[in-house]
Structure formats: structure tokens, C-alpha cells
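Workshop exercise sheet. Pairs work together: one partner reads the sequence aloud, the other fills in the structure field after running the prediction. Swap roles for the next sheet.
Pair: D.N. / O.F.
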Amino acid sequence: MSGSINPDRNRLAAEYVLGLLESEELREAERLAERDPEFQMAVLQWQSRFAEINETASPVPVPETLWHRIEADLGEQAPPRLTVDSTPVAVPSPATTVLALWHSLRFWRMAGLAGAFASLLLALGAGVLASRAAREPVLIAVLLTDESRPAAVVNAFANGRAEFIPLQGLEIPAGRALEIWAIPGANQNPISVGVIHELRSLRLNLDRLPRLRPDQVIAVSVEPPQGSPTGQPTGPVIVKGNASTAL
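Structure field:
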């Protein structure tokens, strides 16, 4: 696949072709399939890959007698008159049947195709589960104002990454910045994990705080544009909250 498309978009295109998407992801894929040229190309490439797998199987012609039987069952022609044939019918033994399959190139080709397709689905399924697990936070902190109004959210993920997401109720005073603090524990000094100059999502710097944990306090204070000059909060704390395990 081309490296120009986002890996998440590439995964979404593969699941879209296989029919594995539901609800929000399905609607997103359908929207991209109509408007996004890169996503359309990814869909076409995945369709081509799956078509290549189908083409490895040789076509099996349908016997003419089968069509006659189907037509008779559907009433398109009169059913044939039943006659009693006294000719003994040779019933192959199980050993003969197994031996015939063992030497059948078509059998092994179809078995290989089924195995390859099953492996592909298993790999895609594992990738989907891993991708979804990586996108789902393990800890969440909802930061509240003094009026108990949600103003920001902090998400922490299993890989150690954490992000700060401001909500509508949060504002940055003119000529100032907001600094985000994690308080390691009781009677411990806050540790700065990020300075925000505009209201957008921000990845937190956890170098001095290896991992967020449940019940850890997260707070945001108003500071000078470059952040606190002392390494500790100097302005008012406008929102705070405790991290808790995600449901």
C-alpha cells in the first residue's frame, strides 16, 4: 500500500471492503468513500488484493444435469417419470474418498485458499482490536470549574501517552497562558505537564511523571505566556479534577 495514506485510514478502508464496520465508523468510511480521493484509492487497492485471492481458485463448471434438476424442482418442466434401476450403485469407501482428495490438486488449492483467507481475516481482526485498544483511554480526568462545570478532559492511554482536551467552558485570559499540573500525591509539589496558549488538544509531557494513576489530581492555573517562572503555580487555579479508571 502507498505510504501517503494515514495508517488509521488504511485500516478503515480494509475493514470497509470486508464489511466489518458498524455505526460511526461505517458512516465515516462511507463519507470518505464519496469525498476523499486517497481513501477511494485505498479502497480500490484493498478490493484488488481480495480479488487476487479469489482468482487463485479455478472455476468449477456446473454439470448440465444439475440445471435440469433445478428446473424440475422449480416447476419449469414436468418432473421426470421415476423408474427403478436395478443396476447396483458403487458406493466408494471412506478410505477411497480420502485417498482421492489427497491426490486432488483442486482440493489442496481450495484448502490453501481457505487457509490464506482465514489467516488474513485473523490478522486483520487482531489489528483492529489492537488499534481500538490503543485509541481507548485507560484513565480519564474531568476537570471542573468552581461552579462544578466540566471545562476540560484529560485522557491517559495504555502506552503511557496522555492528552488534554479543552471544552467550551474553558477560556485563556488575554496576554496569559494556562499551565497544566499533575499532583503526584498528598503533600507533594505539583509537576508541570504542559502549557497551553490556544484552546486545542495538547499532548501532555509526562517525562517527570512516568504515568498518571487513579485518584491523581490534575489542575490548571493561569500563568504568564511562557508558563510559571517558579516551576510551581503562581496564578489562580481555574479547573481541577481527579483521574479515574475508564469504564
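Discussion prompt: Residues 139-245 form a domain with the Immunoglobulin-like fold (CATH 2.60.40). What would you look at next?
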